[in-house]
Amino acid sequence: MKRGYGEPPSASYSSSQLKRKWNSFDESSSFADESTRKARKVADHYSARSNQTLEEREASPIIHLKKLNNWVR
Predict the structure, then answer these.
(1) Which band of pLDDT confidence, cut at 50, 70 and 90, is reported for residue 32?
(2) What are the two backbone dihedrals, phi and then psi, of residue 53, each rounded to the nearest 5 degrees?
(3) What is this structure's pTM?
(4) Dist CA 65 CA 49 (whole Å)
(5) How many domains does one find in the chain?
(6) Are 4 and 22 spatial neighbours (Cβ–Cβ below 8 Å)?
(7) Which InterPro entries would you find in this protein's record (predicted)?
(8) Can you say how many angstroms the Cα of residue 32 is from the centroid of all Cα atoms in its chain?
(9) DSSP per residue over 38-52, as a string?
């Protein structure tokens, strides 16, 4: 039996067990939707940013912190 696909209700399952089983499937589905929504928001943010030239990036006030962070990594 695959996860998420229940067997037909039988005497071996109580109604609370079936409800819990289907609720856990719904929760994992909503988790995927939430994850997809967050990924879409991040992608939209970076898509909306304009491309900068090397000179513009070097003029950034935090460029030295970024370089230090990359060096530490």
Answers:
(1) confident
(2) -75, 170
(3) 0.39
(4) 21
(5) 1
(6) no
(7) mRNA_G-N7_MeTrfase_dom
(8) 7
(9) HHHHHHHHHHHSPP-
Between CA 2 and CA 55 the distance in angstroms is 55
Q: Is residue 68 part of a domain?
A: yes
Please report, rounded to a whole number, the percentage of residues in the chain having pLDDT higher than 90: 51
**Mean pLDDT value of segment 37-51:** 93
Residue at 21 is within a domain = yes
What is the C-alpha to C-alpha distance for residues 11 and 5, in angstroms, rounded to an integer?
17
- Residues 27-51: what's their mean pLDDT? 87
Q: Which two tokens stand for residue 61?
A: 């006030």
Measured CA to CA, the distance from residue 43 to residue 32 in angstroms comes to: 16
Residue 44: give the domain boundaries.
15-72
Task: For residue 47, report the phi and psi dihedrals to the nearest 5 degrees.
Answer: -70, -30
